[in-house]
Design goal:
alpha+beta, five-stranded mixed sheet, homodimer, Phosphoribosyl-aminoimidazole Synthetase, Chain A, domain 2, 289 residues, 30% helix, six-stranded mixed sheet, 9 helices
């Protein structure tokens, strides 16, 4: 973990460019002619980011969805993807899921590479989008007094993974297997937000990232956070990712263009970047990977 | 091999878009606002694409150079890269080589992802460029009567890898460890060529790709092909990649803007896509991966 963070910091210094936010902020934003490019890359490893025996169609779907979710948080319009594919003998199912996911998001398969390796399957996807609104939302714009919103409930992927491990009915694991990137929501919200990101690593951790980048403290109201799991598992759900809801901050006087869940407020920087009901959360904030 | 080709064909069908040439033609070409994007992705695996004990700085250099070479063949101006990095405990050397290579090509590190895995190191790089000339050179434009040119000698990477394996002096393996992408040459040549690609998998194989895509036969004159290895190894050098010279076709009446090696002519499609001194080459044409 320390090693990885040090590497990311070194990469970030190498990038040495405020526009090159991709290494810490998921997407890179790059003016390009008359338009603005939004770029992101996610890599997934069998046994780390997905179950080794998972249906490759679901793995392909998730690989696309995670990248699309990064584009969604920027209000970007998906254009295409480049795929890095390690052969595994399960190409047919993978392709089926890939086709479904690309169709869902209107993204084209532009290119990529295939390789062979003796190790666990490593899959990479680069997604290319076009900014629909400038400035492209970032993590660093939350202002004291802003309200904090989320597009929908969390905890669904958590119980979905459990259902998948227990070989429950297919529908019970859908939230984990087939997450949805909020592309339309991201585009609709981009003109209104002061900060936005997708919740991929846990609400508390991702909220702390906005708070740190914006040099504020986000105070979440526990009871206001919508759940897609039993209420007694709220504390776990706050630290669990993979639901890909959008988390955002906006001035209190703004009427947002979509029904949203208001889950907290932005305050001056206090002893911790994120508080729950005014208190510092106990333990880990989420999934650090 | 068959499996991989079938997958690539399936991916290609999925792309189902003449502009989406990336899966077979290395780069994707995408109109984007007032400009044209050129995109490519290469993945490298330890033990397959580089020696497991190779200096990570050289591996980083090559990862960048191979992608830049794909951009060069399109006459593109490098803009930036996204890196997929599997942690290996050798981050410091990797970063050193990465910084050198990005500096060489004026490309920015825009983003990426880091992962952990128990398998051989898998590294991916997506490179983004801007087309300097339209139409962007492809593989399918060679015309009967065109002359065939190459930017420089081949065989240097072949003897360089041997020197590296034999732990020879560092300089003797330079051509293999630190290949150069011909970015400036690609931009200068793009307005003059009917087809262009980089020689990454062997001159015979890559020439056959241009010939097949253009539905012609390329007849190479063996003695005219410049070598960076002993002349008795000419046949091997013709089948060895990694030198990253640019291979191109252009009308005979055109004076090219750079000194080039004229190595053959384009003729009507005959029994094979590529001939040497009028004969069908024996054995494998190059490195199929």
């Amino acid at each position: 973990m320390g090693r990885e963070l040090a590497f990311i910091e070194a990469l970030r210094a190498l990038a040495s460019d405020p526009a090159a936010r991709g290494l810490t902020d998921d997407c890179a934003v790059l003016p390009f002619g008359s338009e603005t490019l939004v770029l992101t890359h996610d890599t997934m490893v069998a046994g780390v980011h997905f179950l080794p025996d998972q249906d490759p169609a679901d793995v392909a779907w998730k690989l696309v969805a995670t990248n699309m979710s990064d584009l969604a948080a920027k209000g970007a319009v998906p254009m295409g993807v480049l795929l890095s594919y390690q052969l595994a003998g399960t190409e047919e199912r993978f392709l089926a899921g890939l086709a479904e996911a690309l169709d869902e998001y209107g993204a084209r398969l532009l290119g990529g590479d295939t390789v062979s390796s003796s190790g666990p399957q490593v899959l990479g996807l680069t997604a290319i989008g076009r900014a629909s609104y400038l400035p492209v939302p970032g993590r660093d714009g939350a202002q004291v007094g802003d309200l904090v919103y989320i597009t929908g409930p969390i905890g669904g992927a958590m119980v979905g993974l459990e259902a998948l491990r227990e070989k429950g009915p297919a529908k019970s694991s859908l939230a984990y297997r087939r997450p949805l990137a909020r592309i339309a929501e991201g585009q609709a919200l981009a003109p209104f937000v002061t900060a936005m990101m997708d919740v991929s690593d846990g609400l508390l951790l991702d909220a702390s990232r906005i708070a740190k980048a914006s040099k504020v403290t986000i105070n979440l109201e526990s009871a206001a956070i919508p759940l897609a799991c039993p209420p007694e598992r709220r504390d776990e759900a706050l630290r669990w990712g993979d639901d890909y809801q959008l988390l955002l901050t906006a001035p209190p006087e703004l009427a947002l263009p979509l029904p949203m869940h208001r889950i907290g407020v932005v305050g001056k920087r206090q002893e911790a970047p994120v508080l729950i009901n005014g208190a510092v959360p106990l333990g880990s904030l989420g999934y650090q990977h």
